[in-house]
Structures are given as structure tokens and as C-alpha cells.
Amino acid sequence: MLPVDRLASVRPDGPFALTDKTANALRLTTVDSEALGLGLAPGMTLADARAQVPHLEAWPHEAAGDAALLDRTLDAFGRFSPMAALDPPQGLVLDVTGCAHLFGGEAGLMKAAARLSERLGLQSRLALARTPQTARALARFGQGGIVSEGDDRTTARRLPVAALELASAETQALRRAGLKTLGDVDDRPRAALAARFGADISSRLDRVLGLEDARITPVRPPAPVMADRVLMEPLISTEPLEAVIADLLADTEKALETRRSGARGFRLTVFRVDGQSRRIGLGVARPTREAGNILRLFRERLAALSTPLDPGFGIDQLRMEALHLQRMDPVQTAIDEQDQRAEALDALIDRLTARLGPEAVTWVRPADSHLPEKASRRVCASRPEADDGVRWPDLDPDSPPLRPLHLFDPPQPVEVISPVPDGPPARFKWRRVTHHIALAEGPERIEGEWWRRDGGRVRDYYRVEDETGRRFWLFRAGHFGDEPAPRWYVHGLFA
Amino acid sequence: MSTPGYAELVSASNFSFLRGASHPKTLVLTSLLLGQAGLGLADRNTVAGVVRAWSALKTLRQDGWSPPEKVREGGSPGECGWLADPLASEERIEQIKARAKDFRLLTGARLAFADGAPDIVAYPEDREGWGRLTRLLTLGNRRAKKGECHLGLADLLANPEGLLLIVMPDRRTEDLPSLLDRLNSARPGAVWLGAAMPRRGDDRRRLERLKMLAEAADTPLLATNDVLYHAASERDLQDVLTCIREGVSVDQAGRRLLANAERHLKAPDEMMRLFADAPEALAQTLDFLKRPIFDLADIRYQYPQEPIPPGRTPQGWLEHLVGERLPIRYPDGVPDKVQSLLAKEFAYIAERDLAPYFLTIHDLVRKAEDAGILCQGRGSAANSAVCYVLGITSVDPAHHELLFERFMSADRNEPPDIDVDFEHERREIIIQYIYERYGRDRAGIAATVIRYRPRSAIREVGKALGLTEDVTARLAASQWGSWGAEIPERDVLQAGFDPANPAIRRAVGMATRILGFPRHLSQHVGGFILTRGRLDELVPIGNAAMPDRTFIEWDKDDIDELGLMKVDVLALGMLTCIRKALDLMRAHEGVDHDLATVPAEQSDVYDMLCRGDSIGVFQVESRAQINMLPRLRPRQFYDLVIQVAIVRPGPIQGDMVHPYLRRRNGQEAVVWASPKPPYDRNELQKILERTLGVPLFQEQAMKVAMVAAEFTDREANGLRKAMGTFCGDGTLHTYEDRMVGRMIERGYDPVFAQRCFDQIKGFGSYGFPESHAASFGRLVYVSSFIKCRHPAAFAAALLNSQPMGFYAPAQIVRDAQEHGVEVRPIDVNHSHWDNTLEGPSHALALRLGLRQIDGFREDWADDLVLARTRPFDSIEGLMRRARLPVAAIRKLADADAFRSLGLDRREALWEARRLPDDDALPLFAAASARELGEEENADLPRMGLGEHVVADYQTTRLSLKAHPMAILRPVFDAEGLLTCAQVEARRSGSRVRTAGVVLVRQRPGNGRAIFITLEDETGITNLVLWVPVFEAHRRIVMSARLLGVEGVVEKSPEGVVHLMAQRLFDRSAELNGLSSDHEPVIELSGADEFAHPQHPRNLRILPGSRDFH
Hints:
- The structure holds 2 protein chains of 2 kinds.
- Chain A is α+β, with helices and mostly antiparallel strands.
- Among the domains of chain A are: 2-61, MutS, DNA mismatch repair protein, domain I (3-Layer(aba) Sandwich); 125-208, Orthogonal Bundle (DNA polymerase, domain 1); 225-327, Dna Ligase, domain 1, CATH 3.30.1490.100; 406-493, no CATH class.
- Chain A has helices at residues 2-6, 33-37, 46-52, 63-77, 105-119, 132-141, 152-157, 168-176, 182-187, 190-197, 200-208, 241-259, 291-304, 340-356; strands spanning 16-22, 25-31, 57-60, 84-86, 92-94, 127-128, 145-146, 225-235, 262-272, 277-288, 315-326, 362-366, 376-380, 406-417, 427-430, 433-446, 459-466, 471-477, 487-493.
- In chain A, the strands form 6 sheets. In chain A, strands 14-15-16-17-18-19 form a 6-stranded antiparallel beta barrel. In chain A, strands 8-11-9-10 form a 4-stranded antiparallel sheet, sandwiched between helices. A 3-stranded mixed sheet of chain A has the order 2-1-3.
- In chain A, helix 12 (241-259) crosses helix 13 (291-304).
- Chain B is α/β, with parallel strands linked by helices.
- Helices cover 44% and strands 13% of the residues of chain B.
- In chain B, the strands form 4 sheets. A 7-stranded mixed sheet of chain B has the order 1-2-3-4-5-6-7. A 7-stranded mixed sheet of chain B has the order 8-9-14-11-10-13-12, sandwiched between helices. In chain B, strands 18-19-20-22-21 form a 5-stranded mixed β-barrel.
- Chains A and B meet through helix 3, helix 8, helix 10, strand 16 and strand 17 of A and helix 8, helix 9, helix 19, helix 41 and helix 47 of B.
């Protein structure tokens, strides 16, 4: 239900499902409990589901959003143990060996975890067992809960054979053979099972029954040097943080000293009561471990955060990790000689951006539209974009430019005398000055965008040159004889 | 000053798929009304649309009228109001006729090259030039995959004789001089440089440049407007087509769309104004028309001569063959009636020179006969004595009225039509024979134009307009019928949208405009065009999606229009079934029959049909047909012809069914609808006599239009065409006023008139002519005969011909059991691939074959049977002797096929799982020794009956052990629910409760009621749900696999029982109780029209075993 939970705050009321296109049809991938209660299930086509529940609300499933949520959740659960990993699909696995005491024993840990997932708005089933595989099986195929010491096998034997997570044909074969629980399988001679389902079944069974242990691979290997503080009283303002950070840094300094090394980076993780967490990293040019200096850097870093640290309902845990450990010798960095021009431009953009702000430094990219004002767009030079494949129009090499460099935004109304129905203007008055036109070319006819609510009128553009040699780009909006009458504008000036 | 002359020589219709935005005939009519002197239609690498333009012009010349086009509402510039009703005045008609007489239509193609050369429009000068053009296109088509054409400039230059070429320059003109040089030296005096004024700003500068280039190359400059649509108002439609083509939505399309709406047909004075700088380019268009130019009427179609021996005339040879076959058909002497019929038919065939056509068909039928393939002809020309004697049909003219007489008296322009059905499994043999006999350069399959229908239109247009897939899917799903000339607001509401919402409104409006637009070409199911000369010099040939298949660019209508003849080689599953049944009867019962010799008019066969006992019988096996049988009570052959035709949209929509039944049952007098004096009171008698005064067949409805509404041949032809391709030309509604109005004017009852037209509308979605019904009637009779007298052979043949027909194997097997056939389970020691018959001829039992096992392969079955020289005694031994892979053994075990080895399903599966991998260890294989040692007993729990039944359904979709409902019966008994048999026995009006598994859900026609068929171990119950009950129980209806019902029994006087449902209960959960961990899979046999476009027999009540949780 994780994908549905993710959208809890934005989704409409009523039965709800997410869909994805598989096998040429829109199918439900996840349904909420209300839809489940109405008999809808993942895998159904949306058409079938709608036939049953016409008012079903269905949104496209975004796997990337789920992955991001799961990542955030992993971070949040990182407070219980640094040994945390994703357990796909939609699961987390934590090695809490030696962590439970921080949370008041196993029961306390479970309660804290349940509370956390509730605060995150996620539905969860938790299981705690001696091995990760047993816990996973209990959470996915059983009722979850804490398995007391020595009860793993007895508890796991009650699970259905699906808990072995064999290929569906194999699971089916076990059921066809009348073996429906892990206990049924466990009771048969292992040799007979292995002969039929491969040697793998035995070790799978052992792992789920807790007879064999495979350790987890954590997502973020815990840093070799790390310090943790669980706060009894959550901090609701950021001022006292500094003291805690100083404490943590003192711990890491000591640890680094014993290793005779310094770190090139430090990472502070701030856990909030509501399950949110935030990581703030800090890089230094040379390895260091000196707590005072690092604290100063953190102070500046925290002050300069674009989104300031928000304690929310309170900060209840902090962790400091020292990264990229090195001996303290400084290292010379090499300078790439290639592409100096691009680098010089980059450097210029960097400097201008640093001085003037990113919004002030822009360049022009082609955009895909016939409408002149939409045919180009300004983008921040400091934020490179992926190539969108749009190119400037391909013109005959010996053609004069059809469009001016300078455009008025908005176009300026002018009064024009011109022959009907679509002859070029003879003279026009702009800013109280009358221009007599000596040369003209056109029209270039551009229709409005009919698919927009205000698609605009058709425009006839003319390139004109007045008697003094000044060149303008004029257009008439609307056809002669239309209601309301057409109007003329000057849209740009040719250099 | 006289008006300037102009002809638009570069125009693209909507057969330039997803580029052009107007129908060919709209272009012709618009061009003519604008006063252009001619029109050149050149679609992109195809000539698929030219025949339509050509025939539209023909109609305009003769009638001065063409069915009006739908005109867009709204005030966009360029809207052509005069298109709304060109019929408005007689004057206009005369004016159009006069203009059409001198109007020139050029038919060619726009060659778009793959090598970067600019497009070149090519028009043939003469028949040879046309042949070169079609060969060129064929070359390009055959090189590319379906729907594409890869041509290079060199291909054109290799053989440009007879073609007039207009170069359409790109924006960049650097390479133009050298191109013009090359073309001029290849085709001196036949090259033009096309110039357009597309309002791009630099038009005049560019025109000047082209002028200079043309002068330098000594090539005339030719004015065009490079037309993509007939009027400026179609620009938005063209934009949408572009979006569909490019797969983008309109707000992302950017410059892929055209900047303006200029590429429409323009009046000559407008062109004059645009080309004021180059009047000579304008004049050039008229000079172009003065060149000799090919007209499609120049095509002289010649029929192939293959089947005629040297020295014989086609007519002589046909008469000779008929004479030769007469004694075979009539060993006891030829009846006089037949003799005189033959004489009349020969005279007619000679007069219209149709003998070669009959000979070709005869040749195919003879080939099929030699190969032992059953076949049968149908269609207007097939219902003739000649065809019966030649063995093309099996309806004996000595006993039955023939429709050929009516064909002979009909419109002389109507092409003869013979479709031949062959066994569906072996039709390919005939197709390959045709290719072999005539060669691929002389035989090709016709095209079918795939057009936008409401569903596809709304889906693609919605996507182009940026609606989400969910929204378009919902709109599309609301389109129940796939045909229709419009998308009604009601459907939009039903999909849960507000029709006034601007986005929805625009999408629906645009989709409505695109309805009937050709989307692409596809191959016809089996219509062959044969020619004496090269086919690719007649029409381009392209690749089909199927390997080794090619098809031509013209469809049935084009072919009719040009007077080409088509031979339809179709596939029919029932013929396969009948042939297999006849083979089984010959082998096991010593009875030898063929289609023609099955004893006619046997009363026990009709008795069976009158009971509605027709599962598996051709055509009359659907629920609706089964319900009709006891009411119609067929007693003779012609009754079957009517039975086949009556349960169809035409008669139903025309409300003709009940009047017919009442008259047949003597409850209503048989009278003809009559006009007022001075018209002949009995003018309809001849047409309607045989159907008791009620028009039931398509031909009758047409005849009524011609007689009662005085339709001219041409109007009738138009009506027929509009009916055949209802959406295709979307003109049917234009005939409504004329037919109904004229009938009323002549004194007919307005209700009758309207009903006749409604019926024609119904035929539009599914026409059923009597000539087809007559041939089908024969197959109905033959299959009924076999089912009645030889039920075991019938069931086996039906199972062996799957997939076909309406019912799933479970229903076929059950029906056989109810007819006293013992059905034996699949077993490795007894079964073959096919279902077989066992035992003495008086008590044949049906042995289920290995083909019933899902996923089992025929070659495995063959290996198994070959190795079965003595009975198998162990799984391992079987595997080794038959050399079957482990997967095959597992399938057999899963299907419980090892019972004769003393192993039940569970034991066999456990054993099979243990088998070694497919490559046996060489040492053991060599020694042929048992590889597997003894092992300790696994002591598996016993498999219960419920579990077995479930597994049977999962592997073979049926169970001989029990019906799932039988196992659940104690549960339902305890609740006081009746069985289906008990419901059937209750009096009309009784309130009952029952339950059963859902076989069929249907929502026919007007959708006022929903029909559901439930099945249990005792029989079936037919539920009727009125819409309010359905809506109240919608979720249950849509999802339940086991349905509980409370309702009232309703019995018709004929004994047809329905249960009018009032409350429904989803009891599917009970199915899970059958076995503790498998749900049973009961196959739906029903036509589930609700959300499933697939064929009913492929539906399952429960998903396959892999989907189980």
C-alpha cells in the first residue's frame, strides 16, 4: 500500500487505485483498503475495475516517487540502527542487534517503529526475529510481531509455502502435493524435496525457519567513525543543537585520533520526532579532525542553508559521521587542460552568477513554436539543461533574416494604412511618428493556437523598411473584414 | 475578362495517411464547386484513394449530386457553407453536372523518396504509364515493411516513361538544378517545377528564385497550392492528424504543425492574386490538362485463362464441365426444373461473359476436393444450378428456390459475388495453390481500409489533445458498438464526463470529424484479385504483416467500381468440424456422407432444433438463437435460412422479429404493406411473400427501397454502399428522408416505412443477405444432423476443431454426456492428440485427447503415441520411451493422465517432479536402466475431490469428476437454494432462489436488459436483469463468478424459461472452499460484452493456475 499511502494527503476520497500500463492495458498496481474491500485487486485492468466500481479514482503509478519515499523512510528508520537496507518490494530490513536497549528493549523498539511509521503515514507490518529472512517471511506472509528467543522455527512453520518465495510454478507444485505450510514441507525428507525442487529449497526453508542466517547489506555502510545521541527530551528549537553537535564532534575527534587519520567530509543527520530526517554534509579541502574548526564550519553551513533546519515537533536524535578518512597529508589536484574555452565560459558564468545571482545570467535557447514570442526562451546559464532536440530554424544561407533580433513584449499597437485584403502596409504611425514604407515583404501568416483557450488571432507579418532605411516587423492581427476589425502592431525592430 | 483558369494538380487526400485531412470525394466536389478546371489527386506513395475520387466524379457527372459532407459548425474562415446541401436546388444539380462533364481528374501518386530527394508528383500519361507507376510503388512497398514504401530517385529515373513529373522543391534549393537536369534528360518535356505560395513571408522572393531556376533548367513552372485539405476550416483536424502521426500532444507539437491554414483548395481568382508575379505558372496548369492523361476508365480488366484448356472457349468449357458433372449430382436423371434453370443461367453467364469467373471458382473447389478439404460457396452467384452441379454449393436447386434468378434480374452493374468457405485449418493450402497457379505477380489479396471508429478515434484524438489515457480509455469504453456515425452525448455522460466540459467537447467533436478517416490498409480476410497480365501493372502491391503475404492497395469497393472480379477464399471453422465428424463417422460407424448427401429434411433433426437443443450447431447456438428456436419451430430448410437471418441487428432494430413470429404462428394475418392508388396494391408481394410480408433480409430491404420508395438503380447502389461501409462513407442518414419520405408520399404506413429504414440501419452494422443465409442454412442442417444422429463424433470433431464456435470444451463435453455419450478421461495409455472415439459403433465413447491439456504440444503427443507399442507401466519408462521432456510429463501428471498406471494426480506429480533433467546422464541412458533409486515414502496427504475438480479445471478447463456446484450443493441445499433443473420445473410466477457459476453475460442491442447464464450440475438458468437491478448490483454482476439469485420464474408459451432477477449475491467465496488452497477455474463460455473484447470461449470464470494466490 506504500504507493497509495504516499498520496494520502493529495488523493481524493473514495476508492482509489494506481495504474500502470502493462501487457498493453492499464492495470491496477496498488489499491487502497476501500477499493480492496470492494473486490478490486492489483493486476486487474482498469477497465474491469471501472466496470465494477465506476467511481473508482485512478492515478498513474509513479515508481520513482515510491522509490524516493522508500529511501526517505529508510533514512527515517536509520535511527533505530545504522545497519538498514531496502527489502524490496516495499520493505525495509534492519539489523537491530545491540540497538534495542536505546529504545527500551525489543518491545519498546517495536512500539517506537510502529509509531514512527504511523507518523510517516505508512501502513506497516513489523516482525522481529532472530534472522532477517524469518522476520521478512513473518511480515510478508504472517502476522508479524516479535518472535521470542528459540521460537523461530515453531512460528515460521505455520506460514504458508508462499513464504519460501519460490517461483509460482514451484509453489503451485508444493500445494498440489498437499504441502501447504512450511511445517508440511519441513516434515518431509529433505532428500525427497531436493530431488524435486532443487537443493535451493532446503536452504530457503532453513533460512525462513531461522536455521540459517544471512546478514543484510546495509544501504549506507555505516561510517567507520560515527557518534550518536538519542535525546530524552526532543529539541524544539535549533539553538541547543550546537551543543549537541559539539559533543558529537568531540566524540568523532577522539575516534579519529585513535585511527591517526582525518576526514575530508562530515555528515550530520538530524532525526525528527515525526520521522523526517535531514542530512547535512560538509566537505573540507584537507583532511581534518579538529572539533572546533569543524563546529565553526557547521555553524556557517547551518546559517547558510537555503531551507533552514526546521525542528518541527522536535528533534530527538542526532548522528555525526566522519567520511573519506585519510592521513592528513595534503594532495595536489591536477588541472585538466582540455576544453579550456568551455571552462572559461563556465568560469565566467560562475563568476557572474556568484556576483549577480543565477536569475540574472541567462542565455537564449530555441523553443518549438511558430509564434515569434514563443520561438525562443531564456534559461539560466548556470543550470545546464538536457538537450531537448529543438534547433533554430534552418534557413537558406543567402536569405536575409526573416525575424528581427529585438522583439517588443507586448507588441506595440500602430495605425496602418494598407491595401485590402492582405497587401503590405503603405505607411504607419508609431509613437506619433508616421513612417512611409519604401519596401515591404510578406505576409508571413501565422495562425493562432486553436487548442488554447485564448489561442490568439491569425497574424500576417510584414518586414518593412521606411524611407529613412529603418526596418520594422509589423503584423496585422485578424483578417480584413473580421469582427472585431483587425489591428496592427509593431512586433520588432531589425538591426 | 473571363475568370482565370486554374487546376490544382497537387493535392493529398486522407489516404495520405495521417497527413491529408479530407476525403477524396470531398476534394473533387470542392474543386469543382470552386470552379477549378481539374484536380490532381496524388497521395503519398499510394494510389489507395484514387478510385474513390474517380467514382465520385463519375457520380457527379451522372447525377450532379453526391451525398453531402458534414459541415463544421463555427465561424472559422473558409468554411464552405455550400457543402451543407448541394441538393438544395435543381439548378445547382444541373450546374454541377455541366461542370463535372469538362472537369478533369488526374490520378497519380506523390513519390516521397527515402534518399532525401524532393517529393515528385507523378501522373501517368497512358495505361502503360499507369503500369509503370504501380510497378514503381510495388517496388518501394515490397522493399519496406508493411505500410511503408522505400523509394530512391534512381528507381524513378530507371523507368520514367509515360509519367508526367512535377517536382515539389524543399525549402533549400541548392540541389534543384542538378535534379531538374537529371529529370529532364530522363523525361524531356514531361517535367514541371511546382511552386506554391504558402504565406511564409518570403513567398515572392522564393517564387522569383524558382522562376529563375525553372528558366535555367528550361522547365515550366507550375502553380500549385500543395493541398492537404479541401477547406481552411480543416486545419485543426490536420494538426491533430499530425500529432497522431508524430505521437505527440498538440501543445508539444510545436513546429511539427504547419504555421497556417493555407493548404486548402483555392478558387482560381485567389490563385491568380497569389501568382500575380507568375501568371504563366497558373496558365501552365491548364496546359498540363491538355496533355494526354490516363483515366482509370482506360483499365481493361482481363480475367485469367488458366483453368481453360487450349482450344476451348470459357463458355464452352463451363458448359462441358457442367454436363460432365450432371450425372454425379443427379444419378437418377436430371429433373426438368434443373435443366431449364441451367439453360437460363448459361444464357445469362454468356451474355455477361462470366464463365471465366465460374471456372476459376470451380478450379479452386476442385483443388479442395482433391485435397479432401470441405468447402462451400455462398453469395448471389453461388445460389445457382451451375454452382450446385459443379459442387460449389450443396443446396439442391431441384428442391429449393434459387436466388440466382433474382440476381439475374437485378442491376446489371452488380458484380457477381461468390465467397467460398474452406475448412479453417486448411485454407492456407488453397491460398498457396492460388499463388502457385497464378503467380504472385498475377494474384493478390484485396485490401481492407482500416478506418477510424468511435473507439479508436476518441482514443487517438484524445491523446493528441493531451487528455490522459485514463480519460480517453473511459470515453472509448463507453462506445459499446464499434460502428456509428457519431459519438452521442449519452455515451459521454455514461463515461462520467460532462459533455459541456470544453476539453471533452473538443475531443469528442474532433473524434466525430475523424470518424471514417482511413487509418491504414490491411489485408482482406481472403478476397483474391486475379489478372491475366501482371497484377502490379494494375495496382501497387505491398507487404502484409504476415510473412509471405502480399496485398494490393484497393479494397472491395474500389474493385467493384473498376469492374475487377474478386474471389473470396474464406475460412470457416464449422467446415473443419463437419469434415472431421464425417471422417469419424466413416471410420467408426461405416457411414459415408458429404455435404450434399446428408439426408435432407429429417424430422428428428428438426425436432431436436425445436427443443432449442443446439449447442455446437452452426450459427444457431448462441443464447439468443437457442431462445428463438422453440418460438420459430423450424420444420423445413427455408425455416433454417430465416432462423439464421432473423436474430440479427437488422430485423431486431427494424422490429421485424415479432411481426414475423406472430404471422408464422397464425396470430396475425399475412398482408403486404400497400401504397395508395394509383400504385399497385401488391407491389411488395413478390418481394415479401416468402417471409410472410415482413422484410427480413438485406436484399428485401433494398428491394423495398427500389419498389416502394422508387429508388433509382444509382440511388440503390449508393444506399447499398452506405450500408456496407456504414461509417466508411457516413452517408446513410442522407437516404433516410428520401426513403421514408417517398414511401409515405406513396401512401405507405409511416410506421412501416420507418421500420424498413431502421432495419437498413441495422444491416449497416451487420448485414445479412439471403444468399449467404441460404448457404449457411445448409451447414446448420448438416451440423444438426450430425449432432442428432452421431453425437459422439460431433463432440469429438467439435473439440478437435477448437478454437471455433461459441462454447468452451466444458460445455461441449457436458452436452455430449447429456446426449448419452460416455466421456472418458485423458490417459497416457489411451489418449491421442485429438479427441477420439472408442468402443463398438452402437455405443461410441468419447476419449478426451491430449490437446485438451493447456500448453501441451502436438509433437509431444505424437511421440507419446508412437512409443505406445505396449502399455506404459511407469512414468520414468514413459519418459524414456517417448523421449518426452520433463515439462511434458509434468503437464500430463497435472492433468491426472496417469490413472491407468495406478497413480492419481498427486502421486503422479510427486513422481514426475523427481524425474531427472531432460538430458539423461549418458551412462544411464545407454544402459536404459532406471536412474532413480528407491526413496523413503513422503506420505503425502490424500487429494480431495474438490481439489481434484479445481485442478482439472486448471489444466483442462473441464472436469469429468464432478461439477463444482455438485460439491457445494450441501451448502446451498442447507440454505434452501434450488438447482437449475428445479428452477426450470417451477411454474411461471414462482419466486425462487438459486445459484450457479456464471457462463455468459450479455447486454444486447439497446442495453435495456442484461442476460446472464448460470450453470450448475443439473443444467442452466437464464437470468434477465433490467437495468435498475443491474445498476443496483453492478459490482456483483461484473465480478462474481458464482452468483446467487433471487427472482421470479417466467415461462413463455413455447416453454422458454427465464428467471427475472431481483436480488443478486456474490457467492464466489464458496468456490475457494472447494479446495483449501486452490480456487477452481471454471471457464466462462459466455460472450462477456462488458469489458472483454476477446472471444467468449476464451474467458475463464477463474484465472489460470499461475495467477493464484
